[in-house]
Amino acid sequence: SGFLTIVQVFRCKIKGTPFYIGTGLVSVMGTSFTFLPLGQQMVSTSIGAAKSAGDPRCVSGATHYSGATVTDCKGVAMEGYGKFLGTAMVASLFEVFIAVFFKSKAVKAIFVPVVVAMAVMMIGGALIASGIKYVGGGVFCGQNTMSRSATFGGPHICNESGDVFLGFGAAEHWGLALSVIFMGIFIQMLGSPFLKATFLFWSMMFGVIVSSIAYYTAPDGTRKSYWNSAKIDAAPVIAFPWVQYRYPLGFSPEYFLPLLICSYITTAETIGDVIMTAQFSRLYDEEEIVSRQQGGVMADGINSIVACLMGSPPNTTFSQNNGIIALTRCASRSSGFACAFWLLFIGLFGKIGGAMASVPMPIVGGVIVQCFTMVFVAGIQLVAPLLAFRRNQYIVMLSLAFGLGVALE
């Protein structure tokens, strides 16, 4: 993410062409949430298919606490993930194609402003749900709570807060997250301009202090800490993802169309993101904004291919950039390069990455639920000027009805 952020923020012209790579704005990149559900599905499907086919790698293992026998298909999940990466790489060529023909009438017809605005808004709505799952104890924990409750009659136990193991939505999880949020409110009310601009960092540090001091008293009377060194101990000193993991790249025809749709969605998101970032950066020339959008989409496509080759899902320009700019009032490219440096630093030095990953999940939730909600607000800002037209009102109404309705129920 750090390396690809440099490409996106730097912006360079492709020699001999009118095309650019990168936005030249504060466009920090990261793993796209849009692709992850399909990646999970492809891995689980590959495991299920291997079991059904009697793959010799699927051997009976230990017994689960529920009494069921655990079956481990060693290497099958890596093959499934490799197919996801390979198929996503091919689908990412869609963004490169769109960038080349960005000024054509056909592209303008499929990326009309109301579609772009709704893409940002709907992604923001989905991210708010993820943010609340972080607050409650973790996304994985939150996603499995209902199915576990139906099967075993109890909440899913979250294990992303040191030695403390509590059910999803426990009061202790909420308490840690609210300590971050209330500190942010306090800074916004009484802090200096500098503190207000950097309140996310200080509020997170306050949450870290609270979680390091606090203890959870288990039913047996023992005190459990929200921190431990397990992830730090397990992390290598120097981490190079292309050396640690080798996924056999493949292609899955049946998942190509869904991943192509994901590429379309992220393209619309990127176009909307660049519009907002350009406004925050005080760029008002229409031709200049279109050029930045073309460079951003081109970089998203190329960077996603590079990310897949390095073992990561596709990387795209994050909508959260606009939330952070709105909260901090900082749109300097220097801050984008600084973010890239820190991402490289944390990613390359495994022990530091392990320390970052050891932060209790509700503390992270207290920060990102605010960032994620700002994405939704950015979508509202894009949609609002378009609602003067009855046709757009109807399109927004239908988008909200099915986009939010299916997600909520």
List the helices and strands and how they pair.
Elements (H helix, E strand, L loop, with lengths): L1 H9 L1 E2 L6 E2 L7 E3 L4 H17 L5 E6 L5 E5 L2 H25 L4 H6 L2 H24 L2 H14 L4 E5 L2 E4 L3 H20 L2 H5 L1 H15 L1 E3 L5 E3 L4 H5 L6 H4 L8 H28 L5 H24 L5 E3 L2 H9 L4 H16 L1 H8 L3 H23 L6 H19 L1
Antiparallel strand pairs: 1-2, 3-10, 4-5, 6-7, 8-9
Question: Concise description?
Answer:
This protein is mainly α and 409 residues long. It has helices at 2-10, 36-52, 76-100, 105-110, 113-136, 139-152, 171-190, 193-197, 199-213, 230-234, 241-244, 253-280, 286-309, 320-328, 333-348, 350-357, 361-383, 390-408; strands spanning 12-13, 20-21, 29-31, 58-63, 69-73, 157-161, 164-167, 215-217, 223-225, 315-317.
Number of strands: 10
Q: Biggest sheet: strands, sense, closure?
A: 2 strands, antiparallel
Oligomer: single chain
Distance between the termini: 33 Å
Kindly estimate the percentage of residues that lie in beta strands according to DSSP: 5-15%
Spell out the key features of this protein.
two-stranded antiparallel sheet, 18 helices, 409 residues, globular, mainly alpha
Can you tell me about this structure?
Helices cover 66% and strands 9% of the residues. It is mainly alpha-helical and 409 residues long.
